[in-house]
Amino acid sequence: MISIDILSAIKDRRSIHNFKNDEVERVIIQEIFTYASYAPTHYMKESWQIKLYEKNGKKHFIDAIIESYQRLGMLKTRDDDKTEKMIHSMKQFLLRIPHHALIYFKKEDDPVRYEEEYASVCAFIQNAQLTAWSYGVGMLWTITPYMHDEGFTRAIGLDPSIDKIAAVLQIGYPEKIPHDKGRTPIGEKLEFLSE
Ligand SMILES: Cc1cc2nc3c(=O)[nH]c(=O)nc-3n(C[C@H](O)[C@H](O)[C@H](O)COP(=O)(O)O)c2cc1C
Question: Which residue ranges does the record assign to the Nitroreductase domain (predicted)?
């Protein structure tokens, strides 16, 4: 069913900033995260958890983002016209994105274990991006200030003392695919040490 090969997916995948309005079918979302879950995971911990916001479920999530930006001083709370318009356009922009997947995991007390779980969750995210690309679905991996705001974490029903938000993936069918920015030749970064 999927014909794209893994090397093409790795090289051709682009971060998508503009999405069509169409939703991605639930069965495809489940496929994407099923493949993602074959990421390497030390002690078979499979730490990743996903909250998938879509349809009306986006409203509460987006309100929590706006409130967080106000708490962090990035958006005014004042009730003036300019602020109202800014909040409205921000909400509309986020609502137009068909799905938002918030990826989180349980924090570890030991810093090495914490690093291992975060690394594994990042591998999960990249697997999800590559699988999505193979299905013609676009993603944007985002890390934004509200993810570090404890008030936001609580507002979405998580506990900041035990839950770590790793990323939010914006998901949908690409409206526009950005051009390939290319990469630095690996020879500039790869050092062979044979002796
Ligand atoms: C951990 C991480 C966080 C990122 N956060 C953002 C973000 O908040 N906003 C954004 O536009 N892109 C974000 N990106 C996407 C990068 O900007 C993108 O991967 C880079 O420009 C290369 O483009 P490409 O993915 O199309 O090859 C993030 C990527 C990673 C790995």
Answer: 10-173
Q: What are phi and psi of 192, to 5 degrees?
A: -85, 130
- Distance (Å) of CA 29 to CA 36, 74, 84, 174, 180: 11, 32, 34, 15, 25
Assess whether the C-beta atom of 142 lies below 6 angstroms from ligand 1: yes
CATH class of 6-188: alpha beta
> Atom 18 (ligand 1): residue with closest C-alpha?
15
Domain ranges of the chain: 6-188
Q: Are strands 99-106 and 163-172 parallel, antiparallel or unpaired?
A: antiparallel
- Contact of 100 with 170, CB cutoff 8 Å: yes
Phi first, then psi: what are they for 108, rounded to 5°?
Answer: -110, 140
Q: Average of pLDDT values for 179-188?
A: 97
| Nearest-angstrom CA–CA distance, 26 and 183 | 34
Q: What is the mean pLDDT of residues 116-121?
A: 98
Q: What angle do CA 182, 185, 191 make, to 5 degrees?
A: 145
Name the closest-CA residue to atom 16, ligand 1.
15
**14 pocket-lining for ligand 1 (C-beta < 6 Å):** yes
The tokens describing 77, both together, are 């709370």
For the CA of 17, the closest atom of ligand 1 is 11
